[in-house]
Amino acid sequence: MDGFKRKTPEEILLSISKLHRGSLKIYIGAVSGSGKTYHMLREGHNLRQQGIDVVICAVSTLQRPETVEQLGDLERVPSIHWMKDGTEQKDLNLDALMERNPEVVLVDGLAHLNRPDARFPTRLDDIKYLLANNISVITTVNVYELAAAMEVAHKLTGIEVGHCVPADTLELADEVRLIDATPEMILNRLEEGHLKGNKDTAVFKRGNLGVLRELALRLVAEDVNDSLEAHREQMGILGPSGATERILVTAQYHWNGSIYVRRGQQIAKRLNGDLHVVTLRKVNKPLSKEASAFRRSIMKLVEKVGGKFEELPLRFRRCIPKALVDYAIHHKVTRIVLGHSKQTKWQTFWQGSVINGILKRVKNVDVFLVADRAARDGERILPAHMQVSKEPYKYKRLSRQEVQAKIEKIKRGRFKVYIGAAPGVGKTYTMLREGNDLLKKGIDVKIGLLETHGRKGTIEQIGELAIMPRAEIAYQGVRLEEMDTEAIMKARPEVILVDELAHSNVPGSKHKKRYEDVLEILEAGISVIATVNVQHLESLNDAVEQITGIRVRETVPDSILRAADEVQLIDVAPEALQLRMREGKIYAMIKVDQALNNFFKTGNLIALRELALREIADDVDERLESMERKNSLRGPWRRKEVIYVCITEISQADRLIRRGFRIAHRLKAAWYVSFIAVGNGEHWKPKLETLEKLTVRLGGEFVYQEVMSRKAIPAMFASQASTAGATQMIVWKDATVKKLLPLASQMDVLIVADYDLWQSAENKVK
């Protein structure tokens, strides 16, 4: 759907000009050897099978076996060879390409610098020339060769880049695809001698590989977010998308303004969001000398932390809530950060409360109140630096429990997970291809559970892999099939391939969920390669419902990703995925229209893709932090955080628990869930057991308590949180909030918005 909005003359002219311009697709990887050229060549073969005229020019295989194999019989237009510092270089032969006039050119090295006497100075200029002449181009680039990432890459890894591609290059592309490769995969290729000819030796440190991988994930996520914003604007959709965070800090020209900015920066960093800072300044009232100094200080700080600063005009104090909420709506803010109220009850009665005014007006936006604990605890708002273990700890004698834990880890099988934004991205296809590669190396690999959904390309990838028979289970008079975990453990292959981790087993099976079968297989010393979609992660359940309007019933705990030794994203652009759908490569043709009009709508796919990219970037960052890396793209965390989730309503409990988990996980915090109900909750018992299981599964502690009057709830929450040493409370925006806030002023308080799920105009208009 393109929406009903009339195109402007400029948009019409742009659309017409694109008809006479070639398309540009860019494959991005973290480093050389991640598989960009391999996938580019494979796409070339697929295009040629569709009758499209494809040639290659200036493609560098570096004699890597898999890449050389992919060259096949693709037609090559000879490149122009020349020497630079004793190394052979390849330039595009523009004259030969123009004479040949193919539909598509495959070319490596987007960041390449041409010879001194070339028509254009860079390969990017060559590509622009080809595009202008209606020749499409597919090319490759490493993330550290992009201007948007080069400086950060150099700072964190020390990598030097001779030439980089301008920051707006990705905007020029019609499609950007990330080829994700784990450090383990890159190092394995290096060990096998498949990365010969690569001179970027600095990248092949495990920490550097992780940093560059995270950079690539985040950079592509930003690009996807831009396209999502453009799509939502075109569709006339207002409000946050649910895929990314945007933090608004309101700070006055006062000594504590910098504290709020710093806290907002930490939140934005840990949530991978944008930071906006605003101050409300009375119209026609000059600033005092002190306020002017604070203004300069705050503006300088906001610039330093990469935020956006703006002054909003203010006439009367009572207008503050409206001004902030209007700004939040216009800028698609997801969280407003401000300080606790310091007003007395009488001041609030006569002057009104800014916080209450915001809560009354705002929807779909969380409110975060920053506690000023400097007077009591000393400064602890600013993030603490990570503490690196000192050398002597290497010689510390392990306890019996530590020894046993290490032995169990050694015995356990290796676990790898392929994750994607949606069905059909190629997770199963890639898993089977890896299985066959391992089989060729003499490793005993079998398929434990495979769901091909009738996809021809997937079925072809089975190759020589043996498929384990499924177990038959009787249920309500019908014989149903599930993965035969017992048979797998008796057969004891070295590696087992398992599709769809989130699947719920037939009642009567040993385990309720397939991921539990996988954990048992791993404990038996058998390695597992598995697949899952990002929408099945438990903590993302609400975000996925907000994006798609669909509540995903089958989930896996987020700990599954943390338990994996490797997590690899399979990234596909929404347009490419929809094309696969229309061609019947994902579902049967009879289901195609229904899928494209529901889950596979453009807005849904873009948002889910961004969600997947950011989630795996977070996973990479968690792994890097566990290695005690000093520099973190998300910033360091506090020394100690304790999260306390306060629940009074069954209907919102699941969502608050998942929110508590995600915040606690990002801040390395202990977390608790407290459910306080009025009267006898015996009729809630089944639901309470479900909530407790959810909390425990996500790593929290659950407490349930009953009170005689609703008036007692705020004081009890405040007391419980204080006893637990909570630094942050998470509450629902309900009637108890107003009375709770004065009792919790020494803590940060996150007031979770009453989201209107399924707000998307795209999801409403059929």
Automatic annotation (TrEMBL):
Going by the UniProt record, its keywords in alphabetical order are: Kinase, Transferase, Two-component regulatory system
Do you know which InterPro entries this protein is assigned to? AAA+_ATPase (IPR003593), Histidine_kinase_KdpD (IPR052023), P-loop_NTPase (IPR027417), Sig_transdc_His_kinase_KdpD_N (IPR003852)
Asked if the keyword Protein biosynthesis belongs to this entry, the reply reads no
This protein's record includes keyword Kinase:
yes
Query: Which residue intervals define the domain AAA+ ATPase in the entry?
Result: 22-163, 413-574
Database matches in SMART domains: AAA
Superkingdom of the organism of origin:
Bacteria
Pfam families to which the protein is assigned, alphabetical: KdpD
* MF GO annotations: kinase activity
PANTHER family given in the database record: SENSOR PROTEIN KDPD
Protein name, per record: Histidine kinase
Q: Which organism is it from?
A: Paenibacillus chondroitinus
Its taxonomic path starts at: Bacteria, Bacillati, Bacillota, Bacilli, Bacillales
